[in-house]
Amino acid sequence: MQLDQRSSDLLNEIIKNPGLKSTDLESKYTLNRRQVKYSFDKINNWLKTKNLPKIERTKQGLFMVDSVVTSTLLDTEQEYSDDNILSDWEREDILLILLLSKQEELSLIHFTSTLDVSKNTVLSDLKKVQERLDPYHSEITYTRREGYELEGKEFSVRKLLINTVHRMMERSNGAWRIFEWAELNKEEMNTFHNKIHSIEQTLQLKFTDEKIESMPYVLSLILRRIKQRHFIDPFYIHYQELMDTKEWKATEEILENQPHVPMEERLFITLHLLTANVYWSQDLTEETIPELLHSLEEVLHQFEKSSCIYLHNKEQLLHRLMLHVKPAYYRVKYKLTEMNEWHHTVSEEFQELHHLVKQSTGPLETLIGEAIPDSETAYLTMLIGGWLTKQGDSIHDKIKALVVCPQGVSVSRLLLGELKDLFPELVFLNALSVRDFRKYELDYDVVFSPVFLQTDAKLFLVSKVLNPSEKQRLRQQVMSELHGYTPEHLSVEHIMDIIKKHTDISHSDALAQELERYLHQDVRPMAPDPSIDRKPHLYEIVSGDRVKLLPQVDSWEKAVKEASEPLVEDNSITENYVNAILSQSADPYIVLGNRIAIPHAKPEEGVHNLSISFLRLDQSVTFDADHEVQFIFIIAALDKHHHLQALRQIMRLSQNSKDIKVIEKAVSKEEIQTVLQQYALHE
């Protein structure tokens, strides 16, 4: 009798991890209770054929494995593996190992005899293997002279090799299967194993158990391919960055008896050592990446701000994170993240936390010069989540909020920034459009929006731009509904009356303004962080040569083209950006109050420089049946942040009918710019 792969995996799991319950197996292998029971019925029948005691299960779901079963199966691991039926996925892995470690001509007969399956099954498996090769831009080829072999850039083939070895090592008896089917040399494997332990001393670190086990197999197969003259092509790499590391010296130790290995190959092995996960290291920092620790500190700082959680013992957490981030730095920078695929999705418990961690990784992405994939941020989430649990904090204890605004991305972010300042105790997850809100999957407790929305969460209706009195009222309302109290409101007028009774006031207005700022400081925007790049004022971006005054235009499309012309002429935007605006300008949300419109598109549509132009028409142009537009600001943003101050000033202008009247009657560009300058004075 043979044991199927699922049953084999479950048996191997409870032998190597005593104390597991059936619910643990259901969760890990995505099985239901009936499937687990069915597999253990098969396992017990298989044990019976081996004259071994069957596995019992307690009422609590614990598995009771007789010591005779454990010792027998561990002692006869190789024979036990021979009784397993290979799954489709395992057969594909074996075909990959055979192709990657090829030392002779490989034919269909070779494959059918090795896998003990039919010719048609092998052909079907080869098609599936090819699908797995596509992301590596490699393919299986066949010639009568060479048989079956892999073709592709060797750098990609190496990534495939390492990924395949790691995946197979995770399965029961995976190491034995690689050793047998790749026909590895036991003496060479022992030599590599000893060298890796020596390397740990050289590097003053300890690799994870998985890396210790897999490295001899990876190194042996890489050296075989090098001897067969499958060389790495010269690849984009900072040679000095790698050659200055201790891992380079360790590579020289590994290759001490291999003098003819080319430079690129030595660099690749160095990179393999640098990307290997470790669980202990003597040094927290490396001279080769001096900015890494600072970037990671910035990540934690941003996480604390966005999550409203203070991290205790941050130095210890930084040390743990550095153990992961240093290898991740090289994996991401040199596009080797496929080697470290995150096989499990982030648990439901950590979904919101993962979202906040991803939002905080900007400093690391800037340092590396690449976006950090989920496979890496998921692991950061697990580490930070475990740390929060240890210190007794949870993101679930925080009130999570969304900002939903139909006015477009820029307006949503502007409102988000103001609400973050107003409610520092809330965790703001995202600023969304109404359409994205309807598809949003993370948990949230509060929604702020200028429009009514169908939601089970608490909904607070807000203005697109909040003046100080609106902020004060909103804070009182939110605190009352969420916490059952209203922050006490102190009247400046009443305080001024009390002061006047007891003393003479020489500068009454100035004192009243100072008291207003002090008493309501919790609703004022936070002071700008000097470490953050400065955001320019509206008048600084809308220079005189970017202002146009026209009597009228025939259509809305013509108005957009006229307004965009100064930015096209000074090469701040391309014609493609103008076309992108026109393709989406039917959206009524770009129209603000007082006949002001803010047409814009995505930066990647053709923005070269942060820029804004302004067009004033003497006669309004029809935008749609409900809107007339007379004043157009074309906004060309380079990123999500630097245009927000200018946008905030446009929003304030749209609420000021007096200033709009001045702009409408202005006879020169200078008069218009004078009005715009006033908005910088009141920031």
From TrEMBL:
Biological process, per Gene Ontology: phosphoenolpyruvate-dependent sugar phosphotransferase system; regulation of DNA-templated transcription
PTS EIIB type-2 domain boundaries: 399-486
Coiled coil: none
UniProt keyword annotations, A-Z: Activator, Cytoplasm, Kinase, Phosphoprotein, Phosphotransferase system, Transferase, Transport
GO annotations of cellular component type: cytoplasm
Top-rank taxon: Bacteria
A GO MF term: protein-N(PI)-phosphohistidine-sugar phosphotransferase activity
Matches recorded under Pfam families: Mga (PF05043), PRD (PF00874), PTS_EIIA_2 (PF00359)
Every PRD domain range: 183-283, 287-394
InterPro entries referenced in this protein's UniProt entry, alphabetically: Ascorbate-PTS_EIIA_comp, Mga_HTH, PRD, PRD_sf, PTrfase/Anion_transptr, PTS_EIIA_type-2_dom, PTS_EIIB-like_sf, PTS_EIIB_2
Residues annotated as domain PTS EIIA type-2: 540-679
Cell compartments where the protein resides: Cytoplasm
Function text: The phosphoenolpyruvate-dependent sugar phosphotransferase system (sugar PTS), a major carbohydrate active transport system, catalyzes the phosphorylation of incoming sugar substrates concomitantly with their translocation across the cell membrane. The enzyme II UlaABC PTS system is involved in ascorbate transport.
Protein name according to UniProt: Ascorbate-specific PTS system EIIA component
Organism of this sequence: Salibacterium salarium
Taxonomic lineage of the native organism: Bacteria, Bacillati, Bacillota, Bacilli, Bacillales
